[in-house]
Every structure is written in structure tokens, then in C-alpha cells.
Design brief:
About 35% of the residues lie in helices and about 15% in strands. The strands form 4 sheets. Strands 4-5-13-10-11-12 form a 6-stranded mixed β-sheet, sandwiched between helices. It has a 4-stranded parallel β-sheet with strand order 8-7-6-9, with helices on both faces. The chain has a single domain (about 1-20, about 55-135, about 235-450), classed as Rossmann fold, CATH 3.40.50. It has helices at about 60-70, 75-80, 115-120, 140-150, 165-175, 190-200, 210-225, 235-250, 270-280, 300-310, 335-345, 355-365, 370-385, 410-415, 440-450, and strands at about 20-25, 35, 50-55, 110, 125-130, 155-160, 180-185, 205, 230, 260-265, 290-295, 345-350, 395-400, 420, 425. It is α/β, with parallel strands linked by helices.
Length: about 450
């Protein structure tokens, strides 16, 4: 089936008209409004982040729940997407022919008793975004960002990425007939992720700078050359990532968990999840908010330090972690993320490289697997249960953001006791599973296996 929604298609559900969706400055002291079609990433008046807000069509919560469930049986492109299935809850488009879909979303909830025990819980459920088309949660946001780019008749899109964003944007740009420009830190990327961007035809530029420095550079280039930015400060990326929570709630028959735990890098997911949960509550679809726990790697933890110290965010100029997906020293979405964590009575925690590596091995032993950044969730849960913040009987949904094959070098080095943290600190292979060299001798192998 086509990756773009055919012209003339009449998908079920109402669409937003131009007057029903706006961009609004997130800063409480500003709240300036802009047209939904303005090419903006920050407020021109105060430089605050922007968010999309809507006047919903008034359809009741039970009607919406039935509609979403019925769409699971439909083969229409929009309905088959785990993002656009919930389009009434992200109604920024006035024409769905702009949509580029690779049938993103549709990611499972997985029980993992072994991981639960390691984390100090009676039970844990993983919402595994690694089942997405390009192997990470970025696809949920990118389908919406790409749709807005096509709506604005943009020919080129760009991002700064340590891996997953570049893979996702390259795929959706290719499917939507746009040129993808990817800027990444030279030498600081997983080859598994870079390979995806190259395979999807993106023009890739490795810059000799860190993520935050490159982002400032690319924002200048985007303004000069009329390129549409698809990093997480893009408000339409956040709208797509909201669907992760809508789908999770739908899969649980709209029963709200006690906690939602996720890794924190640029904090776009934290912003999106909190916004989704608040909107679902305000629409009467759920009756309470889960608490949000954000887990950062200790070598790239400016949000944790701000939370702990109660001070302003201080950027980490040289963020260091093997969990490359969250190696962010100056997260652009922190004001939104802070609001969502506070609103949910949530917490922020940090974990070491050793804790991430061991938690990742435990998730793998559960038959699930994930990229290193994802494992920060279980490592953080273990710390929070030890501290009594999360009760062992709590209903916890932990989000795994990326596929196990995103960083295979990391896996091999951990299990063969060769993994080193930044600075050359040895990571112990506490749960290693080294391969065994054997002779070509059935009797000797049989004796060994006995």
C-alpha cells in the first residue's frame, strides 16, 4: 500500500479547520498565539517553546474510545497507523492527503517478570517503541512532522541527530518525496543508526561539534535556506509522540497506571506524554494522571540536576554516556518537561553507565531487548523502588524507546567484558553471556552440554 494517503480519500472522523488549531507560546507570561501554518519553532516575542492547541469537536469520550477501537479492524492507511488512528486528539491538519505513514505505532505492551524482579516490582509492563518501522519512538512524531512539512510545501527537511531521529526522518522524507539533510556529531553515533539514514538516501553531514552546538548551527542554516527543522522543538513532533500514551491507554482499556517511566534526553517525549495525559483527562477519557518518572544518564543529566537542586537548568557542555540516544547536554524541551513532571507529581532520577548496562542485560534476559538508552528506565525503577519512591506493588508502564539492534557493538562488548564507559572506566559484565568456542566433535560438545 502507498505510504501517502491518496487524494480524495475520505477517512472517518472529523478534521480540524483552520480556526480550530493554533500554535501558542508555552511561556505563561506570554501565551502569544500564531497560525497553525506559521513556520515557527520558538515564540518570536519571548523565544519560548510553542505548542499546538485545539478546539475539539465535542465528541464524547466513550464515542471516541469506540471509534479508536473500531479502527483497529480497518485496513485504511490512516486507521492502520497507531498515530493517525487517534487523529481526533491531534487535529492540526486540514487535509489528510499530506500524511506520510509507514504504519507507525502499533507497538506492544509486554510483561517481563524477570525484569520486574530486578526492578523491585511485582510486575512491570514495557511499552516497546522499538517495534516501530525504523526501530524507535521517533516514528510516532516524525509522521506528524513530515505531514506538516508537506502541508507547508517544504522540499527539504533537516535534523540534528545522534541516531534515531536521523533514521526516522530519512525514512519519512523519502516516503514523502522530500530531501533529508542530517547533521550529526562526527564520531559520536551508532553505526547501526547511521546505516539507516544512509540507506534511506539522506544527505548526511558529520560536524566536528557536539549535539547542542550543531543544533544552533542548523537553526541558522534552516532560516537562511528555507529548510524545515524536524528536531524535537518542532511542536508537531510532540503531537505525534502524544499518540504513544493514547495507544498505551487504549491497550489497557483506558485504565491509568500508577507510573509512566521513560528515559530523558532532549525531553520531547516527557513533554508529549504529559500533554497527552492531561488532554485525555480534560476530555474525560481518563479520571486521573499517572506519575511521570524521567531517568537520565549520569553523564548527561542537566534535567536531573535542576530537579534535585531546585535551580535553573545548567547545560552540560560535554555530555558523556554510551546511551547515545540520550547524550544531550542542553535539552531544548526542558520547560515543557518540567511542567509535566510537576503536574503529575512525578520525579527525575539519574543512573550510572554500569546501572544502564546491567538493566539492559536483564531486559534482554526477559526475551525483549532494547537499545542502551531504553534500559535507563529499568535502572531508574530499581533505584526508585530501593528508595521507596515507587512501591513494589505499583502498576508501572516503562517505555522502551529503541530496538535492540540499534547498537550491537554495545551488546557484544558488554557480554564479552570489553565495554568501557566514557573516560575508560571499565563496565563489569555482571550478567554477561559470552559465546563459547568448541571443537568440531559431537561427542565432546555433547559432554560439555551435559
Amino acid at each position: 500500500m502507498s505510504s501517502t494517503v491518496p487524494a480524495g480519500m475520505r477517512p472517518g472522523g472529523l478534521q480540524a479547520s483552520a480556526g480550530r488549531a493554533e500554535l501558542v507560546c508555552f511561556e505563561p507570561s506570554c501565551r502569544t498565539r500564531f497560525a497553525i501554518t506559521d513556520v515557527l519553532y520558538n515564540c518570536p516575542k519571548c523565544d519560548g517553546l510553542l505548542e499546538a492547541i485545539y478546539e475539539y469537536d465535542g465528541r464524547g469520550p466513550e464515542d471516541l474510545k469506540r471509534l479508536f477501537r473500531e479502527r483497529r479492524m480497518s485496513n485504511a492507511p490512516l486507521d492502520s497507523s497507531g498515530v493517525w488512528r487517534y487523529r481526533e486528539l491531534l487535529p492540526f491538519l486540514d487535509d489528510y492527503t499530506h500524511v506520510v505513514t509507514l504504519r507507525e505505532g502499533n507497538t506492544p505492551l509486554l510483561d517481563a517478570p524477570l525484569a520486574a524482579r530486578y526492578g523491585g516490582l511485582d510486575r512491570i509492563t514495557f511499552k516497546h517503541q522499538g517495534f516501530n518501522p525504523t526501530g524507535s519512538f521517533k516514528d510516532n512524531g516524525m509522521t506528524c512532522g513530515a505531514a506538516q512539512a508537506r502541508r507547508l510545501n517544504m522540499k527539504r527537511v533537516a535534523c540534528v541527530s545522534t541516531g534515531n531521529t536521523s533514521a526516522s526522518m530519512a525514512a519519512y522524507a523519502a516516503a514523502g518525496g522530500m530531501e533529508a539533510l542530517i547533521f550529526l556529531p562526527h564520531g559520536n553515533i551508532s553505526f547501526g543508526k547511521l546505516a539507516q539514514a544512509l540507506e534511506y538516501g539522506a544527505k548526511t553531514l558529520e560536524v566536528e561539534a557536539n549535539f547542542d552546538e550543531i543544533l544552533a548551527l542548523v537553526r541558522v542554516l534552516a532560516q537562511k535556506l528555507g529548510i524545515y527543522l524536524l528536531n524535537s522543538m518542532n511542536p508537531f513532533r510532540v503531537e505525534g509522540q502524544k499518540s504513544i500514551m493514547f495507544e498505551m491507554l487504549d491497550q489497557r482499556d483506558w485504565r491509568v497506571p500508577d507510573w509512566v517511566v521513560l528515559p530523558g534526553g532532549n525531553l520531547g517525549n516527557t513533554s508529549a506524554f504529559g500533554k497527552a495525559l492531561r488532554e485525555a483527562r480534560d476530555l474525560g477519557m481518563i479520571d486521573k494522571l499517572p506519575r511521570i518518572a524521567v531517568i537520565q544518564a549520569a553523564g548527561a543529566a542537566p534535567f536531573y540536576r535542576m530537579w534535585k537542586d531546585g535551580a535553573a537548568l545548567q547545560a552540560v557542555t560535554k555530555p558523556e554516556t554510551l546511551a547515545t540516544a540520550i547524550r544531550i547536554g542542553d535539552p531544548v524541551s526542558w520547560p515543557k518537561a518540567l511542567h509535566e513532571v510537576r503536574t503529575s507529581n512525578g520525579v527525575v532520577e539519574q543512573v550510572s553507565e554500569q546501572e544502564i548496562a546491567d538493566a539492559k542485560a536483564q531486559i534482554g534476559r526477559a526475551g525483549i531487548g532494547c537499545e542502551p538508552a531504553s534500559a535507563a528506565t529499568l535502572a531508574g525503577i530499581r533505584k526508585l523502588t530501593d528508595a521507596g519512591v515507587i512501591d513494589k506493588a505499583a502498576d508501572v508502564v516503562a517505555v522502551l524507546t529503541g530496538n535492540v539492534l540499534k547498537d550491537t557493538d554495545y551488546i557484544y562488548k558488554y557480554h564479552t567484558n570489553q565495554l568501557e564507559a566514557p573516560g575508560g572506566v571499565k563496565i563489569r559484565s555482571n550478567f554477561g553471556n559470552r559465546s563459547i568456542v568448541v571443537p568440531n566433535d559431537a561427542d565432546r560438545i555433547a559432554e560439555m552440554l551435559r
